[in-house]
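Usage

Read records sequentially. Each one opens with the input sequence:
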Amino acid sequence: MTSRRTRILAPLVATVLVGGLAACGEEDGSSESSSNSSSSSGGSSSGEALSSLTVSDNVGKEPKLTWDKAVSTGTTQARTVVEGDGPTVKSGDLAMTHIMVANGASKKVVSSDFKGAASLLPVSDSLIPALADNLEGAKVGSRIAVAAAPEDAFGSQGNPQMGINGKDTVVFVLDVTDIVSPEPSGSEQQPAGWMPSVTESDGVPTALDFQGTPKPKDELQKGYLVKGDGKVAKAGDQIYVNYLGQVYGGDQPFDASYTRGQPFPFTLGQGAVVKGWDQGLEGVPAGSRVMLAIPPELGYGKQGQGNTIKGTDTMYFVVDVLAVQ
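and closes with the structure output:
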């Protein structure tokens, strides 16, 4: 059986690397006056590991870290720097969270998304324990500092890309900004006649069934299965989606994010995805589930993609737009 630690490495790497976060230098500045408390969040214990570290209490802004000495612990510990007054994060939620990552041994900040879009983290076994355990039970508006034992962070292999080895304590600073539903949250719509049916397992799309589906048109087609009432996506927005893609007439999906445990973030209208996504997802409100039929010229063109998508294939996607920033 795959261990929890093994399962959760990919999502955090996706958050830190795919999210395009740049490594930072050591934080030497003095902190602002901190309201650090001794209370713990989630399932982690409160203790002395973080007593040598002061974290500024300016929630929503880049944290300032002041180190008296290196931070080291064999047991993950946490401290609520600021307790928010918003709703409480529950297991199964998606927590919109700004994250700073530091190496407790070197006292260096190695990653931060505070100057960009926040990360959307699944509060489940798909996330590393140091984050999942301390996001669960936290209130929106909180800042939490976590000193993570290696086994609760990146495991014995560490994270060489961030300069963290398998023996280093990892320090996380988390600002919880919102809670996002992991499922579409709008009103159901009647599927259009051009759409294939969606095969689901426990409400999660697993495949598309093209039986009786008409031949696709040579143009982008877009329709709602669920119409949300959240913020409407426009070019330049950071959007967070779950999706499944399958070519017309195909028996199996060629790609899907639902089973990876981590929503896919990208900036709309910047060429980070195929043109059919940039065009088809603009104007879609958060909370929606849409179907897109993307012809080759708005997909991968005549060259196709690998061995699974030919240059003549129309790609069909079911996409859940979970959040828009």
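Summary fields computed downstream for this record:
- The chain has two domains: 4-179, 187-324.
- The longest strand covers residues 170-180.
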